[in-house]
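Structure tokens please, single chain.
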Amino acid sequence: MPNFQSCLKGILLSFLLLAPAVSMAQTGLDFLNIGPNAHSLSISEAHTAVPLGSASVFTNPANLMLSDQSSLGLSYSLWIADTQNTQASAAIRRDRDVFGFGVLSSLIDDFEARQNPGPSTGSFSVQYLALTAAYARNVSFLSVGASVSYLYEQLFQQNASGYAFSGGITGEFLDQRLRVGSAITNAGRMGELLNERTTVPTRWRTGFDVNAVQISAFSGAEIPVVINLSADFVMPLKEENIRVNGNEDTAIESGNFLTFGLQAELYDMIGVRAGYRTGETARNWSFGASVQVNPVQFFYGFIPFETGFGMVHSIGLNYNFNL
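Here you go.
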């Protein structure tokens, strides 16, 4: 058993050191830092003041109040290294408040297990899960919200669980053309996994979302185009990533960075999006599109990585309804 545990620790250490570079793949619970759906990913996660429907339970729960309807959300993202990130969420809207629920998971399959050098003894998976419940309500011109998450991680036959809290506030100004939001996400703690605690990546985010309506003439018709610009300042409060410098692997804390998003929607039906992310990252740019056929909106997002890891693709939908 001691030899097996030593081998397993070696396998897990290799996974943590080789799979991710800074902001490329994900380390431990870093899946919590990745946009929960295609909409968020397409604007480089500049989403603290952007309504994402029911998926706002994972970003800024206060934004659940920015929609006049209840909603359901689904999303699937094929991250690098064949990591599969999935999201499902629901928001139940009432007159002055909203209840939200969500499931966020990340799965990597088919890691080979070895007790000694030589042929593998089988395969195992690495899985992470967040089950979230949120509540938001209006307070004057402000929306406030909070959420609690149950966190779970499993590596081979080992597993651990923990918790995280998030809270945020969003204000709407200039006839709802300007939104300003701030949130602290994933403040929590994990239990021990092989005598170590995985760091829960806590972040403070502050951002805005501003929109302007433009009327353009085309073939004698007036075409309404809505253009939104969003931006976030992100400060990691508790986070560890892995930097790979030649043969030297060093655990570091990520620094502050900015994200920017640009959205343009035509007739409230067809949308195109782009985003940019600063800092030490291999995914500076992101892009996406959407099509709305009431009451359903379909999203697609993709991120071209710059280090040979290929392209990330994400698809999703939001379904809006009245109770």
